[in-house]
Design a protein that fits this description.
Structural class: alpha/beta
């Protein structure tokens, strides 16, 4: 079980994660990469990419922290940023001698993915070209939460299209074309939030005709692990508190038992992909929650034998 740490392209932050002890780094690209990514070799310190094993690169957010999902990335006229992200991953792969995963989200339902023929056609073409140009790069599509919410007080939450198994179905479709160069990224915080909000929504679904819903809809974490079995490239291991947004998102685990259950599912369904401990910190130069989560994983290993 490889343990990755997430770090931005900042020397001090990266060094702190290395000091915490990790098998690999997932680079968390930020909005500065939108401007600097085209010449990252000279815009960022060279040693950033040589300090520690790089396993994954996460696509940057857009302006104003807007999520850049797959359906946004590949409909842009200018694909310079996605090319720079893939080129960075290829650069790191050449240094470390193994494939590097590029991660982006997708909020489309499978129905929309299949119906948006122009987007799907361009995605298939451009992704194919990227794989040809950058042969040491893989693509990982991450599950999202079915509701977007900004704590500005100026707008209501927005429901997304994609929920639960949609990402899995989209990955399976793309694997028919690109093989194992494409896989899923299972974010346990997003999964747990989906379970919470979908259960709450369906419990109040009095507007639906009787008989239109199954007696039981399974949004459980076990169902997530079962659906992603065999196609998962990476797990973002984290939790949430409260409503799960902003400071409540991507937290460490308050209970050993909750973490144990996730790791039990990892073992039960035969996963062998890395885990990125994607946990929020008050100070990313003193990663208290990362270290605590690592200790909890070691405790699970002892009890699980």
């Amino acid at each position: 079980m490889e343990i990755f740490a997430k770090a931005s392209l900042k020397l001090a932050e990266l060094q702190e994660k290395i000091n915490c002890g990790c098998d690999g780094i997932e680079f968390n690209l930020e909005k500065d990469f939108l401007a600097k990514g085209g010449s990252f070799e000279t815009e960022y310190p060279k040693e950033l990419f040589e300090m520690h094993n790089v396993g994954a690169v996460h696509y940057p957010f857009g302006t104003d922290r807007q999520m850049m999902n797959m359906e946004h990335i590949f409909q842009h006229e200018d694909l310079g940023t996605v090319q720079s992200v893939f080129r960075l991953a290829q650069h790191c792969a050449g240094i470390w001698g193994h494939r590097v995963l590029v991660i982006f989200h997708c909020s489309l339902s499978y129905w929309d993915f299949m119906e948006y023929e122009l987007l799907r056609g361009r995605l298939e073409w451009e992704l194919g070209q990227l794989f040809l140009d950058y042969p040491m790069v893989e693509a990982g599509i991450e599950n999202v939460v079915p509701m977007e919410y900004n704590e500005t007080g100026t707008e209501s939450p927005r429901l997304c299209n994609g929920i639960f198994t949609d990402t899995v179905k989209i990955v399976q479709y793309l694997r028919e074309i690109f093989g194992n160069r494409v896989g899923s990224v299972l974010d346990t915080c997003h999964a747990a939030m989906t379970e919470k909000y979908m259960k709450a929504l369906l419990s109040e679904a009095e507007f639906l005709p009787k008989g239109q819903l199954p007696d039981k809809i399974d949004y459980s974490m076990e169902h997530y692990f079962r659906e992603n079995q065999g196609i998962c490239k990476l797990i973002h291991l984290n939790d949430f508190t409260g409503n799960g947004y902003q400071k409540n998102h991507g937290t460490g685990f308050a209970e050993q038992e909750k973490l144990n259950r996730l790791l039990d599912l990892y073992r039960e369904y035969g996963y062998d992909c890395p885990l990125t401990l994607e946990v929020r910190e008050k100070d990313y130069l003193d990663c208290v929650n990362y270290r605590r989560t690592k200790v909890m994983i070691q405790q699970w290993k002892k009890t699980a034998g």
